[in-house]
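Sequence in, structure out. First:
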Amino acid sequence: MAQDYPYEERPRRRGRKVLITLVVLLLVLAGLLVVADRVAAGVAERAIADQVRQEVAKQDAQSAPPEVEVGGFPFLTQVLDGRYERISIVLRNVQGSVQGDAVSVPRLDVDARDVRASLDTIRSGQGEVVAETVNGTGTISYDSLAKLLDRPGLRLAEQNGRLAVTAPVDILGQRLTVTGTADITVGKEGQVSLRFNDLDAEGLPNVPLARTLLSNYAKGISVDVPLPDLPFQLTVREVRPLPEGLAVTADARDVPINSAG
């Protein structure tokens, strides 16, 4: 019986070799499919980035070249279906002009979900890329906002979760430093309003006229912020002071994220 062992082991060894070969081939094939999938996604991302650039230009705005990432895997099945789980767009150094005043948004992140785009649209760049929901988050720099208020020496910053102001003011012949915070509201149409209702100044003369002058200064810097039209029909829903600036949250539904050809 001992002499039969070598003959029984040979088929087993051949079987293992065949199995290993099949596994290797499957892994290679899977790798090639992943590579092809990512290459196709890259082509689509570049095509969408070019169309987003045109959309931004339509709003009389400027930005660095858009950065686009198509989410979801595999990508090719999404192409065939004409629907994409998510398209993320990053716009840097966004600048627009409103009433002659420049508004700076260092970074605008746009997250488009449930995006519809035909294969022909992706390939040719002609047609609409429509997103069911679009959410945008950006930051308005405090320097840019201070320029809009147009008060020499005025500085804005975040303080305990609120928008704080510091500014030199001449009141009754005295140079005082005014400090305080603002209430921020967002209107139905996405209009952002700043109201400085809580200002004070150390050393303020204890006379009604001094208090009236301080109140007038507060009214002078209480403004409706002239935000530029955001791309993709985004409407502002919330504004929060952060250390780096005013964080703006906006959204929209059923909108094109490209310029239709």
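Second:
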Amino acid sequence: MNFQDLFPVLNEYTYFNTAYSGILYQPLIEWRQQHDQEYLAGGSNFRLESGTIIENLRLRLAEIFQAKNVLLTPNFSFGFNTLLNGLEKNHRFLLLQEDYPSVAYPIKSSGFEFNEVKIDENLEENILIAIDAFKPTIFAFSMVQYISGYKFSENFIKKIKQTYPEILLIADGTQFCGTKAFNFDNSGLDALLSSGYKWLLSGFGNGFCLLSDQLVGKLYQDKSANGLPTAPFLQGKSHLAMSFEPGHIDTLNFGSLDYSLNFLQSVGFENIEKSNQLLCDKARTEFYNRGLLPEWMINRESQSTIISLPLKTEMVEKVEKANILCSARGAGTRFSFHFYNTVDDLQKLLDVVDGKY
């Protein structure tokens, strides 16, 4: 498939910046235009008839991620803050140093007790030691670290849950969802929250939250004794839905997520995972051979689609001049690879690094 015909930005740039923002594609734009044309022509009639968009999205999310409890949120941060607001304040959080600010900040600013673990080649061991010493009730983390690209092994997550079943595992999946197939109910996670604008290619203003039964039973317990609204248009909504999904849900933004999930299903999440893995494995080997990655990083069994390189300022400028889009994150320059990237794209970057471009 020639992805340049679908993703016009690929005609102008070598796009290694999905970790910053996913790109839009022509069929989605056409769907969005049709959506607004129908809204323009139908007004309130369109809104009355468009509820199937939202229900289709819930069903598709449940199917793709194998999850029973699905809630819609405009982005990860909104969903995560809503989740925290529904917890009792006596929880103790284990966090990772330099994790995404939207994970750490609301926990710290809300006054929860917390402890942080350093991210290095011994991270898994560090986490288990911290659990035994600090005895957290919740471990909150990003599935993929936005700076380094460090990705948690799914087997390690299951190991934590099997060893410490009472600990709630809450994950930010924004840099993870859309990169591979994933079964939430068998993952050991109690919550997976994600925005849709990165690897899911859905534009801004949409996201979702998947919850385990264990966590659902602990959220917003203080509201369970209060009556729900009796207005006809709110009938059937639970206390949980009233908290996570207040007000009207935008059919344009969430319809875009539904459309993109359908598109990614047509490409195949297994195919996406295989394509991403092959290209990222090759990239890591090439970068390691040039002294840009430590050995422990390339030897990890579980690898993400994000690679951070310690490039000097002059090299970053050369990359930018070559119309290669990437991001400065932490002390490095972050490159992120998705299924529309090719070996030719990687070779162009390597030529720039080698001074051949």
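Remark: The two ends are 27 Å apart (CA to CA).
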